[in-house]
Amino acid sequence: MSGKAARKGLLETTVALTAAGTMALAPMAPSAAQDAALEPVAVRVGANDTFTRVEFAGVIGARARIRRENRQIIIRVGSTAAPDIARLRVDPPPGVERVETRGVQGGTEVVIHLLEGAQAITGRADGAVFVNLYAPGRGPAAAASPAVPASGVVPVAVTAGPDRLQLRFEWAAPVGAAVFRRGEAVWIVFDHAARLDLNAEANRDLGPATGVRWAAGPDYVAVRIAAPENLTLSANGEGSAWTVSLGGPAGGPGGVLLSRDENTGPTALIAELAGAGRAVWLTDPLVGDRFAAVTALAPAKGMGSRRRLVDLTLLPTAQGLGIETATDDLRVSVQGDLVRMTRPSGLSLSRPTDSLQAAAAQAGAPRRAPYAALILATWADTGEAEFGARRRQLQADAVREAADAEDNPRAPVEARLALTRFLIGTGLHHEAIGALNALVASAPAMASEPEVRGLRGAARAAIGRQNEALADFSGSALANDPSVDVWRAYIATQQSDWTTARQAFARGARAIDQFPAVWRARFGTAHALAALETGDLAAARSLLAFVFSQNPPASEQLAARLIQARMFELEGQTDRALAVYQAVARAPLDGLSTPARLGAIRLRMTAGELTPTQAAAELEPLRWRWRGDAVELEVIRSLGGIYLSQGRYREALDALRGAGTRFSSLPQSSELQQDLAQAFRSLFLEGAADGLQPVQALALFYDFRELTPVGADGDDMVRRLARRLIDVDLLAPAAELLQHQVENRLDGVAQAQIATDLAAVYLMNRQPEQALRAIWATRTTLLPNALNAERRAVEARALMELGRYDHALEILGSDQSVPAREVRADLHWRRLDYGAAAATYEALLGERWRDASTPLTAAEETRLIRAGVGYSLARQPAPLARLSERYAGFIEGARSSGALRIALAGPGSNQSASDFATLAARTDTFTGWVAAMKQSFRERTDAA
Q: Distance between CA 98 and CA 77 in Å, rounded?
């Protein structure tokens, strides 16, 4: 313990020293902790009556790039983890056919397929990249006034002098323009097609210019003015007019910023041009070469000087951009306010460090590795000095270099990179990230330096910041770097992407042997695990042998032994696997002992050495001992399975739900969610919860109701639970369940059916008003005849309970279904129309009198008693005599033989009027109806 405490103190000291040194280097960039608090890629969707806005925000999402290819809007995100676009997929916005994602080298592309005629506007605002989507006919262009005057001709006012020429183009609405010089010609390009009123100017005095020509394309118009090269050029936009001046005072071009982009595909040059319009490719009629003009809206902004690159040249412009190239495959695209210039294989741009001054050689300083993300064993060497002295020396050199850089933008960065290499080589990855962030903050161009991105990505991967590391590795300059492939493979194993891991390890094989021994062992262990998970046991065995040959530290050996135990288990050597698991489980490293204990428990349970109860007791503390990766998910799945097998449903659901969506990037997370859904399904759809008391089942359902599946299965779950509640007269909770279904989950026929059940439950609970609301709120056409009859009967019964007898009879109309006749009989009885009631009750009995061998049911006895009493009270002896003759044989076997004897005997049987009144009160048909409804619910749920 003392050594552990001493090392902790050393780490705390080194962290403090590095923090102090980093602050001396340059102003700190936003901390990684702040960045980590943000979601890497956040997709936000909002809509109004005009358009739908989709934003990509977050640490990685805000750096997304957008391009358009025909009817596709393509958003490239520098993360291999696909953004969450579930809402866009399920419910595409107006104007969108479909939305999909696809994996590309170093990132993911979100592809939005537009409908024919739909429009889209892209840009960047509020720290996010956005796409505004317009349905066909709803785009901004549909509401904008046409830029071309009604005459179809744009007026051009020409003012000439001995040494000056001015042209004013009077458009009807603001248009984008580009104005620049190529040799002895000035080009003016507008991004709308139109005819210009310039034909008459060809033969008049143009001042210093010697000629003017114009030509229109499908979506542009270009003007070429032949003029001496010594004439100044300026442009000015006012409202919908553009004024171009040759000669006179020079304008103040500027406002276009250039940057390089290596994050979203091939290396590209990005120009920030506010109000950028479109790129127009033109052919010079005299020279014959092609060049591009990029238009932009007013006010004027342009390039102040010529920028010559290997693949292209940016011309000085008074407005917009002019681009020359000798290549045939240069792509110029406008993405909001950004103009992207690239080639399929990327532009040949110099490295940011190429423009810096050469650094003086530092004796013994860590040197650059041959690959950007490669760690060299020599970086940790301290020479003859001890660790602290060596670090202080490198830190002092870095501080002096940073101070020089404040006054000299071309100051070298080698001392600061040397400090970073030393920190990474000695395992101080957090401090290395801080030093690199400080370097980028003081020199933003260094963010594109391959070594900076490679080292920072390696440091982030080493401490588990996987998404941030992948963002660093996504630059096109690192696309073919084998050391980066090794790190990508290492990250893929941590994300359980085994196939990708093996492919990346194969690509980076030539770089692995150049890493220090400890990292060779770690990569070998990760590769062995990937081989094991893909079923290649032979490769896993060879890789483990390679790991052990490196003589790694004890912790790395134990990690390899854990993979070896898993291999033994897959080969059926359970005794050897258990022995290794138990040995590793004794290690004082929770990250290794926890999965080892889990493996041992699994094998002992399979062998019968542990009962499920004992296994659960050992797994429960493991659930809290190690958290945050696939090991925790496996512990939770094992624990949940044991609890389910023991009937401990609440503990099982609690355990499975405990992981939540914290591990959504891991494949095991989807398996855990499937386990959770299946457990809930087995409880409430397959009858596993039938052994619970209804109140317990209801409480369990409410506590985990978010697991209710969408669709018919979820609706069936609710109906089954409601039936159980109805069986034990818990009518209010049952009504609440059904009400939620009606209001939130159903429509059409299904909604009408459940609403009918809900109304029946309300009636059973003596709440006729709510029953009527349920029926009336779900009225619809084209319902099945049987359902319509059932709804009429329930509605009429509710009206009857409210005393609205005439209205109830009107609802029933001529309906002769059994439910309608039952309600009609009760209505006649309530209205004291005993003769009609008795006749209806007798009709409901039908030919039942012919089968005297079968006793009457409770409902049939009630109907027979009411029929007899009704005929007596209506003073109709003939029907009563017929009834008595037919059903006299049922009296002895009846449940209420005395009541039935009185009812069939009639008023002449020495019975008083009070006897008939008492008898009528005892035969309550409501109780029979409730029992019949419960049986109906039971039969329907059993048949489902």
A: 18
